Structure formats: C-alpha cells, structure tokens
Structures
1.
Amino acid sequence: MSILRKRASLYLLFASLIILSLAIVRPDRLFTRWRERESLISRATVPKILIIGLDGATWRVIDPLLEQGKLPNLKLLMEKGCFAKLKTFSPCLSPVIWTSIATGKLPEKHGIWGFKEAPESTEPGIPTSDKRKAKAFWNILNEYGKSAGIINWWVTWPAEKINGFIVSDIMQYYPRMERALKKEISTKYDVYPEGLADRLKPLIHRPDEIRMEEVQRFMRLSRDEAKKYLAKLGPKINSIFFEFVNAYQLDKSMSEIGLYLLENHPTDLLAIYFGGIDVVSHIYWHFMEPSYFKKYKISRDEIEKFGWVIRNYYIWMDEIVGRFLSRVKKDTSIIILSDHGFGPTGTLPWSGGHSKTHPGAPVAPDGILIMSGKNINQGAIIKEPRVIDIAPTILALMEIPVAQDMNGRVLIEALTPEFINEHPLSYVSSFEDRKEVEPIKTREETLPAKEELLEKFKSLGYIQ
Ligand SMILES: [Zn+2]
C-alpha cells in the first residue's frame, strides 16, 4: 500500500512540474515557432526545378496546335521563357537518349545502348539502371545534399536508393502489375523507398478501367462504336487500340502519382516522364498524315475517327502540364523536353518513327525544349541545344558544379544574367571518381521483371 501511495505522489509531482513548465513558455513564442515551421514546409513543397519529359514530342505536331490555341499551357511557358529544337543523336532509342539526358554523356560513356548490351551486339539486352556507368543528375544532386524525385524515367529499374524517391519505369507496366497482384512476382525494386509503393498503388489505373468518354475524347467514335472497341479490349485483338488505352492509362496514373508526390513527398527537384505521345505517334501517324501512306487504302471514315488521336494526346498532355504548373506557381524553373521528334515512315504497322528500327522514318529528328519560370531568360535564343546539355544545365540551375567529362554544356544563354552573376559556373573534372552510388543488388527475385521488360519492348516494336 505504501509503495502505491509513494508512486501516486511521484506522479503528482511530475504532473505539477509539467504544468509549471507549460506556464513558463510564452504561448506567443510557441505560435511563432509553429508559424516558422509551417512556412518551411510550404517552401519545401515547391521544387526548385520541375522537369516534364514528353517522349517523342515534336514541333511538327505542336506548332499548328499552338496556332489554333489548343496548347495554352505550353504557349504560356514559351511566352514567359525560351524554347528551341533539341538536337538528338543516333542510335535514336528512348532508353539511350533519356540516359544521356540524365547524365550529360553519350552512350560510349554511360553504357546504355538500348536493347542490346553493346553497339556491335546482335543479342537483345534489357537496359537496367545497374548497367549505367555514369552518374545521373539525381546522384549528383544527392552528393550536394539536394533531394530528387524521379518518376517513370527510362532505365530507372531497379530503383536506386536515393535521397528523395524513384518510381521506376516498370512500376505500372500492365501485365507485370497483374502478376504482382497475384503475388507471382516481387515488386521490391520497382519503387524506392519501398514503402512508398503501397501509397501509390491506389493511383494506378488499369487498361480495362478506361471510361467510354475518355476514349471518345481521343477518337471520334459513337457510343456504340466505343462500346464495341472496349468490349474487344486486349493486347491480341485490335492491338493498336489496346496500345493507346495502355499508354493513356499509364500516363494518367503517372500524372496522379506525380501530383501526389509533389504535394506529399517534396524534393528539391522533380522529374516526371510521360511515354504516351511516343506510343500513339508510332501507331496512329498514318491517320494524321495519310498522304505519306498512298500505298495503303486508308478510308475517309478511318481518318475521321482516328486522325486526331495524336493531336488530342498532345492537347491532353498540355492539360497535365497545366495541372503541374498550377501547383508549383512561380518559384520553380521548368524544363519541358523530348528525347527526339517523329515523322511518317510510309509503312505499316509502325507508321511513325524516329530511328533506323522503323524503316522509312527520319533518323534522329529534333526533339523539343521549353525552359521557363524562375532564373530562365525570357525570350532567349538557345543556340543549338542538345540532349546532352540538359544535365549540365540542371546542375548549374541547382548551383552545383558541372563535370568536365560530361559531353554537354550549360545552356548559359537560357539562364538570366542576374542568376549567372550571382552563381558563376564552377567545374570539377569528374563525378565518377567519387564515392560510388550504393550498388543495387539485383537478386533472383527481380529476374521475372526482365522478361516483362523484354515483352514491353517487343510490343513497342523496338525488339523484333
Ligand atoms: Zn523516345
């Protein structure tokens, strides 16, 4: 009994001490501190740089749409910033070029050759992040204490352990997702940090969840026709339609994931990649420019129905860009770019193309570059920018030195003179001799993902 009483009096003593200390702290001070914390949080939610990658976007499609006032968000960015054709190179394959964009280096230095292990190799190979031999801008940002969020960027699987997050480019690949749901395969390396994946899964839209109105936004189909198409939805039947639906649902999911992470997982830089323009350009081009496909009988009815799929996709992407812009306001530097342009091939089934893989296509046609927002020089003429110039320019904008062993240069003319005066460019010889990026252990359990990547590349026509 006496022990209990002793305890009770001890508790009483503690309680009164706590009340006393609360009374000493000035409530107005507490409030100021809370306010400071609040403002720190809201400042952190604005990334310094927002990068939006639109695979395969070309001025050839954009220019007429701008004239018709159909791309208001891109137009605004262009008016307030600067823009140019973005030079690319051969082999003009998305994994190669997006890795050059990320590293500032050509494939000889970064080691990603597309769908084979080496330029002279004839065997198909899967480009994975553990094969990249050069540091990406997100690794370099981390070395300088800045965080990065990377979403759906080519060759980011397996997801590296970085300060920030990586939603790898296989996260939402459709057949894989089905198998993951049945627990047939592990998705351990799809997202870093691993725990993030569960919060992102509800934002993923499956191909069969597409609504009729969504289809009708892109194709001029009656309700009955749209219904018929949806009833036959599948990769084997009407593959062109399925590829469109898959690409659209994927981009829709990624845009929702991007907006969610922008708000709930702030990073100093956010880079998000959308692949749908590339997909629809490969398979719907003959409906948009039928004059290049005279040897095929493309009916007026088909042109009516599908002639605007590609252009409607750009219009939809412009809306997505707008959604991101409305969240970042004016404290962010914005970079919108593509890895290459597109042109008609004159042959089916790949009616649009950009490399030798699709015979008849222009090889390595120019992509697009739009820079706007904070520290960007309005109305500047950017001199022949190349895909390899993007990483050095990102580093300069983040006030980080640029490596001399990068193939690209800082697009200094695109930055305001005030910014350059305050933050003169600085250089280091290389980042590659520094502490290694934490190596990713590619275990047995990740192997099925490679098979699925192979399937994905086959369905895009990159691997025969
Ligand atoms: Zn591409």
Note: The longest strand covers residues 367-373.
2.
Amino acid sequence: MIYPWLKTQWQLFLQQKIQTRVPHAILLKGVEGLGKRSFADQMAASLLCENNMTGEACGHCHSCQLFLAGSHPDHIVIEPEEAGKQIKIEQIRRLKDKQELTPTVSKWKTVIISPADSMNINANNSLLKLLEEPQQNTLLILIVVRPALLPITIVSRCQKLTLSAPEPAVTISWLQQQSSFLESEIVPLLPLANGAPLKMMSMLEQGVATIIEQVDRDFNLLLAGDVNPVSLAKDWQQYDVLMVFNHLQNLIQRRIVKDQNESNRVKTKYYWHIYDCIIAAIKLISSSSNINKVLLIEQFMVSVMNTDADYKTANYS
Ligand SMILES: [Zn+2]
C-alpha cells in the first residue's frame, strides 16, 4: 500500500514504468519518517512483479511471493552490517558481481542501498563505477536523509526523487485513523518530527506526548523561578535531551512571535535570552556524544534563572 502523502510521486513513477522510462538510478530523499524504504520496496516489487505491468505489485505471483519472503534472487538490499555503521566496499563489490548476471525470475534487477549516505569513501568509488556502466532493466535506489554527504559524482548520475511531508491536516487525520491519539497530543509533536507521519507515530507510541506535557509544566515553573534545578535535571536526563531542547526552541519561537505581535519589547528581549540558552545547549549536545547530560541541563536551568533575575531587575529599575 502506498501512503496517502506519497500518491503523487507514486503516479510519477508509474508513468515512467508504463512509458519504459524508468531511470537506472534513483536518489530517494526526504526527512526521516516519510516511508522512503516502503516506497523503494514498492517500486522494486512493482518492477519485479510478473502480473501487474501498470500499477502496484500484485502480491500473489511467484516473484511477489519471493519478494515478500525477502528471498527474491533479482533483488538486493545493501545496508550497514550493524545499525549506525558504514556500508563497506566489500558489500558494493558483491553487488557488482551479482549485477553482471542476468535476472533469474523477473525481467528486472533491483537494488536498494539504505542509507546510501552511510557508504564509506571506497564504497562510494566502487558504486560510482557501477553507475558509470548502467545496465538494461536494472534499477538502483539510493535512500538518503542527508544527500549532502554523498559525492556529487554519484548524485549527478541519479534521478532525484524527493518525498515531502504532507500538510499538518493530512498527518493529523492519518494518525487519527491509525490510532486513538488525540489532536491535542499530536499537534505539539509536528515540528519535532518535521511533520513526518511515521516518525510522529513512533514518537506517540513511545509516549513522547506525555514527556512533552511534563517538560512544558517544568519549563513554566523554571521561568517562574519556582524549581530546584538539581532535582529537575535528574528528571530531564531520562529523556532524549536533544528532542527536549528542540521542543523548547519551538516553544520559545512561538512565544517570541506572539509577544512581537503584542509589541511587548521587554518580554520579547527576555525570550531571546532564553532562546540563546537553548541554542547553546543544542550546540553542546550536537557536538559531542559523550556529554554529561545532568550537568548540561543544570547549567541551562541556572542560566535561565539568571536571565530571569536580570530581566526582573531591568523591569523594576
Ligand atoms: Zn506479482
């Protein structure tokens, strides 16, 4: 099944298939949680299927059964051997050896490389040679979140296919059809997930909505100076801190916009100071994987409380 927010791109692919204009390589890009892998699987299955020449794979023929069982001899998936690791040159070499053979079951040969931006430099060079000698009825799908990490020589040899997040209303309505989550739980997570429906679903299932509600309550207490930074830092360090600070960044941005509309300059300035503290924390978290989370959160809370004291002094003087 094609996700509702990907129907347009799917129709474009089907047109290429019907008109026998499917490219040799597609760079499939988009933020996390849009269904890129599922889309790539559907493209490959559709080309390999023995029955359906104009639409989605039939799901019943010999080829589809092999594909669904993960054992189609004309389909190869290349992923890092361990999550988060690089794709190595040996994996691309094995692919090259296999690509030289003719298809055994279907008329096509398909390859998915995911995430293609995790190939190391040697793997990139090896893949480039493959792209320079395209074969008939062969489709390589490179799935990427960060295309800037791929060499331009590879990017320029692929047709780009960008998947985008749907309008918030589409995401909300789809999530409500799939689950019992309320709109009030869904909406605050939209910016954190870049509006990507599948990312939203996984965040909701992990209880992120409850965490965000708690962080909002804690943050309001912090702004009121009515909190103990040490005990609160212990609570927050259990969460995904980057997500928490990204959320606070969105929250303060909304407040700044609201206060600018009300021409409340002193308060806006105060919020800009808080914003700086949040950005400093995000920079620290992003720059190192080996960070002392409790200390970082404590420092953030103390700097917010100091900003609050400065603001009150300025306000009363
Ligand atoms: Zn089929």
Note: Residues 293-316 form the longest helix (24 residues).
